[in-house]
Amino acid sequence: MANQPVYKVIFHNANQVFEVFARQIYQSDMWGFIEIEEFVFGERSQILVDPSEEKLKHEFSGVKRSYIPLQAIIRIDEVDKEGTGKISEDAPGSRSNVTAFPVPGMQPHHSGDD
């Protein structure tokens, strides 16, 4: 049996950037969403605990499937093996070189410094 692929999904959620690993990802039947299933969290060592990954485990505990809006997705990679998921804060007023594509029917978000 071939190894099941692992995907690294990076997306915006509120003022944070989530980086999660999952075995299943596909376009949802619900328009404008990506579905993520079978989250993978590192079980490497109980000696070292990464607070960011622990926060992710808590955030997604009991979640069977997560629906992420397309405009929140930053990047999706198929990777050789899972890594350590993390949550990082978006710096207020920071300029990123990553911008979501405009979606028809949705108003663009303005930061107020027009």
Characteristic key phrases:
single chain; 114 residues; mainly beta; six-stranded antiparallel sheet; 1 helix; 6 strands; globular
Can you give a write-up of this model?
With 114 residues, the chain is mainly beta. The chain has one domain (6-89). The protein is 8% helix and 39% strand. The chain is built from 1 helix and 6 strands; from the N terminus they run E-E-E-H-E-E-E. The protein has one helix at 51-59; strands at residues 6-13, 16-27, 33-40, 65-69, 73-79, 86-89. Strands 1, 2, 3, 4, 5 and 6 form a 6-stranded antiparallel sheet that branches.
Structural Rg:
16 Å
Number of strand segments: 6
Roughly what fraction of the amino acids lie in strands? 35-45%
> In percent, how helical is the residue content?
under 10%
Pairing-aware structural class of the strands and helices?
mainly beta
The number of domains is: 1
* Uncertain residue segments: none
Task: State the separation between the terminal residues, measured CA to CA.
Answer: 55 Å
Mean pLDDT: 78
Task: Output the number of helix runs.
Answer: 1
The major beta sheet can be summarized as: 6 strands, antiparallel
Order of helices and strands: EEEHEEE
* Anisotropy-based shape: globular
In short:
With 114 residues, this protein is mostly beta strands.
Layout: helices, strands, pairs:
Layout: E1 6-13, E2 16-27, E3 33-40, H1 51-59, E4 65-69, E5 73-79, E6 86-89
Antiparallel strand pairs: 1-2, 1-5, 2-3, 2-6, 3-4
